[in-house]
Specification:
The complex is a heterodimer. Chain A is an alpha+beta fold. Chain A has 4 helices and 7 strands; from the N terminus they run ββββαααββαβ. About 2% of the residues of chain B have low confidence. The chains are: A alpha+beta, B alpha+beta. Chains A and B meet through strand 3, helix 4 and strand 7 of A and strand 4, strand 5, helix 6 and helix 7 of B.
Chain lengths: 142, 350
């Protein structure tokens, strides 16, 4: 875990919302959508606040009363999944300004449920956003 | 080599041409309907288009006070001797397979579905739209169940309203949305309400508006069911679209509900709850509270990916709805009349 690596939710292609029991995310490009539960919700909050990979681990450890060695693999796996699913990006910019997580109960391994049933729509009818100058060519960033 | 196209000019030239030529058609093939505080004037280029794409709006003819109105010109290549309306960027029949091309300029929204042979253009400044199909005769039956959906989604969105992939039913002053993927039981539950004291607003697509409280509006007086399910609703027999060419394994039976069920239909209702139906085949249907996140997962992805356009706004509208209205899991009985009765009892007790 590094103090120079930060994560940011890729809002150019992801919409998300924090509900009480679950944070939900939709990858608008792939068509996959996700429910994130347990400590995963807290990790997303820390990401939003620009906390580094190393500090994220420390804060979770402190907030949930667990040794770093006990949780490091869980958190690393979770972060890797988020990156691989195109939900978050790795960046070198962050603030590390964060006071404390609220309502931390028992540590429960971060859980991500993936739903792929909308992919058929995406694959069946690929959508290209275009602009009037580039029509009918897809935008260059696609 | 494809040429870049000046889309505003293309739209205006095409609109001018269509308006002039439609004015020359002797028959009056216009149709006006009202939804919420909006008026939509449809101008059809021929009878085929009129018959296929207007009937779903028959229940919305009652005149209402209007704050904004849209003119939609619906044409195909058979309307006019010259085929001027094929998109100019298509050369030699090139269709880019089945890709959808969406132009998302602020004032002019364009969606081109080459495989379906449709082109939709909406001018949000002047409230004019063109909906072009290659041929009205090629419009599939299911387009008649929710016609001009892409036009309405784009324009209604600019008015602050939101098309939802949801069914809707209710009693006076109290409505519910039924949300979920295909096969979850939305349509069956909504249709069963036609044979009850409940009002019917939609089985698949409806309009959400914040007035300021969440309110659902009916858009299409239609219903669709798997052919296997039709036998459960004999009261629908008279209003079923008879079409022997349908593939009953892969397609659905379509029903036009107006005027036969006019007394069971209502223009709009305040939304009091979100139900997520689940085919459970229990003896007695069961309604239990469920978190808003589950309702989001049942409603948002299918709405966002079916309604092309501003996905962030769709997401925001759905989140706002779910924060204002409680959600429930609705475990369905195989006895459909019990399901509609359960909804009725639930709403009366609210």
């Amino acid at each position: 875990m590094s103090s120079k690596i930060f994560y940011t939710i890729d809002t150019s292609k992801v919409v998300f919302e924090k509900f009480e029991d679950e944070t939900v995310l939709i990858n608008l490009t792939s068509g996959n959508y996700y429910g994130i539960m347990n400590v995963g919700k807290a990790i997303l909050i820390l990401m939003e606040n620009g906390i580094s990979q190393q500090n994220l681990l420390t804060i979770i450890s402190t907030s949930y009363g667990k040794k770093i060695a006990e949780i490091e693999a869980d958190i690393q796996d979770f972060l890797t999944t988020l990156v691989n699913e195109g939900l978050v990006q790795i960046t070198d910019l962050g603030s590390n300004e964060f006071s404390a997580l609220e309502n931390c109960n028992e540590y429960e391994k971060p859980l991500i449920e993936k739903y792929s049933d909308m992919q058929d729509l995406i694959l069946l009818d690929p959508v290209h956003d275009v602009n009037s100058k580039g029509w009918p060519n897809a935008n260059s960033e696609e | 080599m494809k040429q870049a196209v000046n889309l505003p000019d293309y739209f205006q030239n095409t609109l001018d041409f269509i308006q002039n030529r439609i004015g020359e058609i002797a028959e009056d093939l216009s149709f006006t309907f009202f939804v919420d505080d909006k008026k939509v004037n449809l101008f059809f280029g021929n009878k085929v288009l009129y018959s296929k794409l207007s009937i779903a709006f028959n229940h919305l003819k009652e005149i209402r006070q209007v704050n904004r109105q849209l003119d939609v010109f619906v044409v195909d290549d058979e309307c006019f001797p010259l085929s001027l309306f094929s998109p100019p960027w298509i050369e030699d029949g090139v269709t880019y397979k089945n890709d959808i091309w969406i132009g998302d300029d602020a004032d002019l929204k364009i969606q081109h579905y080459p495989l379906k042979g449709t082109l939709m253009m909406v001018d949000l400044v002047n409230d004019k739209a063109i909906y072009w199909v290659k041929s009205g005769n090629l419009i599939p039956y299911y387009e008649s169940s929710s016609p001009l959906r892409s036009v309405l989604h784009v324009w209604m969105s600019s008015c602050g309203s939101q098309l939802l992939h949801a069914a809707a039913v209710g009693i006076k002053n109290k409505g519910i949305l039924l949300v979920g993927k295909g096969g979850s039981g939305k349509s069956n539950t909504a249709v069963s309400c036609l044979n009850s004291e409940l009002y019917y607003l939609a089985d698949d697509y409806c309009l959400l508006s914040f007035k300021p409280n969440p309110t659902v509006f009916s858009l299409f007086a239609t219903a669709k069911l798997h052919f296997n399910d039709v036998v459960r609703y004999p009261f629908l027999n008279e209003v079923q679209l008879k079409n022997n060419n349908l593939d009953i394994q892969n397609e659905k039976a379509l029903f036009f509900l107006h005027p036969a069920f006019e007394s069971r239909m209502i223009h709009d209702l305040p939304i009091k709850a979100i139900f997520i139906p689940k085919v459970a085949n229990v003896l007695s249907p069961k309604i239990t509270p469920i978190s808003s996140s589950k309702a989001y997962l049942a409603l948002a992805p299918s709405t966002i990916f079916q309604m092309h356009g501003n996905k962030d706004r769709t997401h925001e509208n759905i989140v706002r709805l779910l924060k204002e209205v409680p959600s429930f899991l609705f475990e369905l009985s195989s006895e459909t009349s019990l399901n509609s009765k359960a909804i009725q009892d639930f709403l009366h007790e609210l």
